[in-house]
Amino acid sequence: MIAVIGGGPVGCYSAFKLASAGQKVQVYEEHSSVGKPVQCTGLLTSEIYNILKVDSKCVLNKLTRARLYSPEGKFLELKLGKPNIVVDRELFDKQIASMASSAGVKINLNSKFTGISGLLKKKAVINGKGIDADWIIGADGPMSAVAKAAGLYGSRQIVIGAQARVKMKCDADCFNTYFGHGIFSWLVPESSSVARIGVVDNKNPNALLHKLLSKVAPSGKVLEKQGGLIPIYNPSQKLLKDNVALVGDAATQVKAVSFGGIIPGLLAANALSKGIEKYADNCSSVLKELKLNLLMRVTMDKLSIKDYNDIISIIAEGKAKNVLEEEDRDFPSKFIFKLIKSEPRLWKYGLKVIW
Length: 355
Ligand SMILES: Cc1cc2nc3c(=O)[nH]c(=O)nc-3n(C[C@H](O)[C@H](O)[C@H](O)COP(=O)(O)OP(=O)(O)OC[C@H]3O[C@@H](n4cnc5c(N)ncnc54)[C@H](O)[C@@H]3O)c2cc1C
Description:
By secondary structure, this protein is an alpha/beta fold. It is 33% helix and 28% strand.
């Protein structure tokens, strides 16, 4: 039996894929239901449709435009070659859990993993009782108790995401990102009257969120506040030890540019389901994209406010804009060199990594 710890999207999708490949799988989720609490914006690129068929009832909105705001308030508008979607995370997680159940997976709720027992073949301790499992898959999020118990936690860095759902008038088909405001910040419309506005930062995301709200939604009404932890991808992260494997946020598999973790986590779950022993090798293409994302993040963190203002103006002028519109941001290997080739002035900023 394979014990998957964590009934989030990546845990349930791993369980679905493993069960579909003929394995006996059980999921252990500490909460009393799947999909709650929601701590996510639910923005996904069209790559999601190459992974699974998202039920239309989970899709709240489709976005065809993106605006990148410079710190001085200039913006670059991109027409997205392929629309992005905004999902209802609770329904999305429940859809994947139901796919897993239909494939024969038993989902155990109110089942908290607290440790590992046994010397050679490790048992998962759930609610104080050791469970025999051939494999223990840690899909239990950024602070992964499985990673800690197995000695796989490593030296990961965690940032904080703070988000508000705001009643306001907004462009229903366009999401915004604001450079120079925290590590990353956004406005993603659920509809023309509700937006998800958020900030990722490692110091004080709540104060930054308030500042952003007063700037972009001065007369908006905050309906709800959400928040959560996000791991920064650690290229030294080990994925396997003894009979334990990590996937998703538990393995820091999050894009360091946009802090989206659903698509890389699901792609890693696909790799895992092709053979757990060979998981690290099968996952190499996913990890390559995460490494490039990290390199882009390191570069972005070195840019000054003036650099961001200049880059937005440079991209708005030329061919680089077309590259950003057409290429999928999940796979920087497909666009990063095209982008720099299309606008050689961008080299100067890329080189900041080694300065
Ligand atoms: C504010 C914010 C906005 C975000 N927006 C986006 C976005 O727009 N797009 C995107 O792609 N990503 C986004 N993310 C990141 C995304 O939410 C995560 O990458 C994604 O949820 C990872 O899925 P997962 O299944 O690996 O982990 P999780 O969703 O964290 O699921 C882990 C599960 O494990 C369970 N668990 C934890 N510990 C235990 C235990 N000891 N025993 C049993 N069960 C346990 C938890 O209850 C949970 O159900 C955002 C994150 C934040 C904080």
